[in-house]
Write a structure and sequence with these properties.
Pfam families: Acyl-CoA_dh_1, Acyl-CoA_dh_M, Acyl-CoA_dh_N
CATH class of the largest domain: Mainly Alpha
CATH topology of the largest domain: Butyryl-CoA Dehydrogenase, subunit A, domain 3
Order of helices and strands: HHHHHEHEEEEEEEHEEHHHH
GO molecular function: acyl-CoA dehydrogenase activity; flavin adenine dinucleotide binding
InterPro entries: ACX4-like (IPR045008), Acyl-CoA_DH_CS (IPR006089), Acyl-CoA_Oxase/DH_mid-dom (IPR006091), Acyl-CoA_Oxase/DH_mid-dom_sf (IPR046373), AcylCo_DH-like_C (IPR036250), AcylCo_DH/oxidase_C (IPR009075), AcylCoA_DH/ox_N (IPR013786), AcylCoA_DH/ox_N_sf (IPR037069)
Shape: globular
Number of domains: 3
Number of helices: 11
Number of strands: 10
Helix content: 40-55%
Keywords: FAD, Flavoprotein, Oxidoreductase
Largest sheet: 8 strands, mixed
Cofactor: FAD
Strand content: 5-15%
CATH superfamily of the largest domain: Butyryl-CoA Dehydrogenase, subunit A, domain 3
Length: 405
């Protein structure tokens, strides 16, 4: 990338060069203004995030100093026109997920939770008053949110299997239950909790402040992927939430699915970014590493691995780009984003494995640039819908038969 000035000074604008991994020049589908903002993203992530990513990943800590940088870039405000710095298109949001993922999937996941799932829940289901109060403050990083859907015994079957309950008592709701794998929950100000209304059996959404009595979030320890993401086990025992904190637009799981529909394609883009990050590191290593008196990049078997990885990346970008274009046009369906997520994460998994193979033993140490991507890929492969669940969504679409159970 050509950087004409340090992005933090603002004196000159960075320009966006094509990534070597963008073999077909998909970047050209971005408008000139989007490319300018993409260059700012890339500059900040290269200059500020990449140097600290391995350190925080190894310590299993989240680098909170990145939050103001993300807010300044506009990464946290796609649903807030007052603070948004770029046109809110699915194509641009997807490309930004790629740019973030190719440097640090943990930071990209933080953004996905804050600006996608948590803010998306308020955007879809919040009252006008809730939206006006919360979304601008979340866009600046003043308020941090999390998204509480997955449970210890309910993941892929969340549409039917939620065990967390909500009971109306006067002007309050009483919540009881547990959530698992809730990103950002250990330091968020509130969590959007989805619970089943005991009265009608429908899923409702609640803005649950993390300092309420009966609410507890414990960090999940000893992860081998996305270690910087602060995932939590949440328990709620008679947590009282006022009616004013209920999301009135969330009346059933169909509304929750609308929120997930906003972000699933971006997870596919993020997976492409992880593949790109590993592949670019492997390419640089192969050009530098000497074996048998010459760079290993000159060996046929190494070139074979690099080309297969590049093919995976190129195909995945094309699929994600088209799915995002369909989302912008208002014609994308669940099966379109599901296919992109299933395909891109599977090809990511292959590509990071090729990259680790190219590095040999050096592929399992952090300082060679591949190991973190190799590990993080396992989390992206599963979250926001497993490959199996997304496959069944697509299978139902093309056959007309529901094979979920």
């Amino acid at each position: 990338m050509t950087i004409t000035a340090n992005a933090s000074t603002g004196s000159e604008e960075p320009t966006l060069d094509h990534l070597v991994s963008d073999f077909y020049g998909y970047q050209d589908f971005l408008t000139a203004d989007e490319q300018r903002h993409a260059a700012e993203f890339r500059a900040v992530f290269e200059e500020r995030v990449r140097p600290i990513a391995d350190e925080y990943w190894a310590r299993a800590e989240f680098p909170k100093q990145v939050i103001p940088w993300l807010a300044d870039l506009g990464a946290l405000g796609p649903f807030v026109p007052e603070v948004r710095r770029f046109e809110n298109t699915a194509v641009f949001r997807g490309w930004m997920a790629l740019e973030m993922g190719r440097v640090d999937a943990s930071v990209a996941t933080f953004v996905g939770v804050q600006s996608g799932l948590a803010m998306g829940s308020i955007h879809v289901g919040g009252s006008p008053e809730q939206q006006a109060d919360l979304l601008p403050r979340m866009a600046t990083g003043e308020l941090l949110g999390a998204f509480g859907l997955t449970e210890p015994y309910s993941g892929s079957d969340s549409a039917r299997g939620l065990r967390t309950t909500a009971r109306r008592e006067g002007d309050d709701w009483v919540l009881n239950g547990a959530k698992r794998w809730i990103g950002n929950a250990t330091f968020s100000d509130f969590v959007v909790i989805y619970a089943k209304d005991e009265a009608d059996g429908q899923v409702k959404g609640f803005l649950v402040d993390t300092d309420l009595p009966g609410f507890r979030a414990d960090r999940i320890e000893d992860k081998i992927a996305l270690r910087s993401v602060q995932n939590a086990d949440i328990t709620m025992v008679d947590v009282r939430v006022p009616e004013a904190k209920r999301l009135p637009g969330i009346r059933s799981f169909r509304d929750v699915a609308t929120v997930l529909r906003l972000t699933r394609c971006e997870v596919a883009w993020q997976a492409v970014g992880v593949a790109v990050g590993a592949w670019e590191a492997a390419l640089a290593y192969a050009k530098d590493r000497q074996q048998f008196g010459q760079p290993i990049a000159s060996h046929q078997l190494i070139q074979d691995l690099l080309v297969k990885g590049l093919g995976n990346i190129t195909a995945s970008i094309g699929m994600c780009l088209r799915a995002s274009q369909m989302q912008d046009a208002g014609v994308q369906k669940d099966e379109h984003s599901a296919l992109a997520k299933a395909f891109a994460t599977a090809r990511m998994r292959e590509t990071v494995a090729y990259a680790r193979e190219i590095l040999g033993g050096n592929g399992i140490v952090l300082d060679k640039g591949v190991a973190r991507f190799f590990a993080d890929a396992e989390a992206l492969y599963s979250y926001e819908g497993t490959r199996e669940m997304n496959t069944l969504i697509v299978g139902r679409s093309i056959t007309g038969f529901n094979a979920f159970v």
